[in-house]
Structure formats: C-alpha cells, structure tokens
Design a protein that fits this description.
Elements lengths: L1 E5 L4 H12 L3 E5 L13 H5 L4 E4 L10 H18 L4 E7 L9 H15 L4 E6 L6 H7 L5 E4 L3 E2 L4 H12 L7 E5 L4 E2 H12 L4 E4 L20 E2 L4 H5 L1
Parallel strand pairs: 1-2, 1-3, 3-4, 4-5, 5-8, 6-10, 8-11
Antiparallel strand pairs: 7-9
Helix pairs in contact: 1-6, 3-4
C-alpha cells in the first residue's frame, strides 16, 4: 500500500513510517520540512496523490485557545486534498478520554478534529492513546521549582511512543474502522506517584507534593484518561525508564 504520513517526521510519525516500511509498504513522510503545509495547504495535494491511506499526525503548536483553529483548518485542507486524490482511508491519532475533559482547550480541539473526520467524505479510523511516557519530563517541568514538583493524583496509564506508532501503523493498513480504537499502557499510576518514580530513577532529589490544583491534569476529573478495556501495549513504564 502507499501511505502518506502527514507529520511523518515527528516523534510518532517517524516511527510509523519505519514500521510501515518494515512491513513492506510504501510510506512517505510529509511535514513542513518537506514542503507540506497543512494550514496554508501548500504541497498537500501532491503529498496525498496516489495514496491508498493518509495518516495525519500533525499537531497544534499550542495547547491553548488557538488550537481549535489549527485542527479545523488543517483537517478541512487535508480532507479536501485527500478526497480529490481518491484516498480511501484517513487515520488520525487522538487521546483516550478526550471527550470527557471539557475544561481543557486542547482536548476540546482534538474532539473537534475527530468530529470533522467523522463528518468528512472519507472512510476513517481514530486511534486514541493514553498519555505518552515520553511526555513525563515536560509534565514534571510545568509545576517544578528548585525543591519540589507539584502534581495531582490524576490516574495516568502511560504508553511508549513506539507502541503507539505500532498501533497506528496496524490500523492504517487495515480496513477503515469508521470508529475508534483505544490503546493504553499496561499499568495505571496516580500522576504524583509516577512523578516520584521518574525522579527517583533520574537521581533527582526534589520532592513531589500532591496538589490537586497543579498543572494541566488538575482539570481532569476521575479516571477518564485511562481505559482498562483498551488494547494494552506491553512496555511497562519502569522498563522504559531503564
């Protein structure tokens, strides 16, 4: 199959391209660095021409109130180009529980992206993943100072980027789901505990203070970012750290 991977040079996209090529498919990465602009539209029609599948892994440059505009414009442009090019399957990557955190601008924007895809002219699949292991350092940095890191006890089910990429690649070469495929890591941790495990592994002696008001995940109520019934990846967080 010929698969156009938009956002194909990033953390997930580069690994999706690698996995697809290893399986014998013609996977072509596209991004701003290759001359494809999902907002301005430049290079999009050429990128998807002749593709059986388009995988969209582009992301908003901000997580704030500007993010809905990014996803609306990028999806409108991409679906128009893909429809014109006769693409038979469109795939995006989203977030487990994304429709259950209305307090976050970025999550509402991702729901918008999903809705645009569902209403569009192309058979589709949505892969929803739990939080990436690779993002923990960023999460810690949001609420850290010289002595402490403040984190809520929000349940988190960390998954390795390589496992996300493998799932996206598998869905991309299958029949369109016209629905959602949930994937998650094998274990669930309170975020504050995950912070302590991470700092201990790094030899970082700062103290994690449990603070239900700290950081982005303070807006999450309950265990909506986890899914015990998802397709579970095998990489455990402690093994990934090691």
């Amino acid at each position: 199959m010929k698969i156009a991977v938009i956002g194909g040079t990033g953390l997930i996209g580069s690994q999706v391209v690698r996995d697809l090529r290893a399986a014998g498919h013609e996977a072509v990465p596209h991004s701003q660095s290759t001359g494809v602009d999902v907002i301005g539209g430049q290079g999009l029609e050429e990128a998807v021409a002749g593709a059986d599948v388009v995988v969209n892994l582009t992301n908003s440059p901000t997580f704030d109130e500007a993010s809905p505009a990014f996803f609306r414009t990028s999806m409108d442009n991409l679906l128009a180009a893909a429809h014109k090019g006769g693409v038979g399957h469109a795939v995006i990557l989203s977030i487990v529980g994304v429709d259950r955190v209305p307090a976050l601008d970025y999550y509402r924007a991702k729901v918008l992206q999903e809705d645009i895809l569902k209403a569009g002219p192309i058979p589709y699949s949505i892969v929803r993943a739990t939080q990436f292991m690779e993002f923990m350092d960023a999460v810690l940095s949001w609420t850290a100072d010289a002595d402490t890191v403040r984190l809520p006890a929000t349940p988190i089910q960390p998954i390795a980027a390589k496992d996300v990429a493998a799932a996206v690649a598998e869905v991309a070469v299958g029949a369109p789901l016209n629905g959602v495929h949930n994937i998650g890591g094998p274990d669930i941790f309170p975020l504050d505990e995950l912070g302590r495990i991470t700092l201990s592994h790094k030899g970082d002696h700062r103290t994690v203070v449990t603070d239900p008001t700290a950081g982005m995940f303070a807006a999450v109520e309950g265990d909506v970012l986890t899914d015990k019934d998802a397709h579970l990846a095998t990489t455990r967080y402690t093994d990934w750290l090691a």
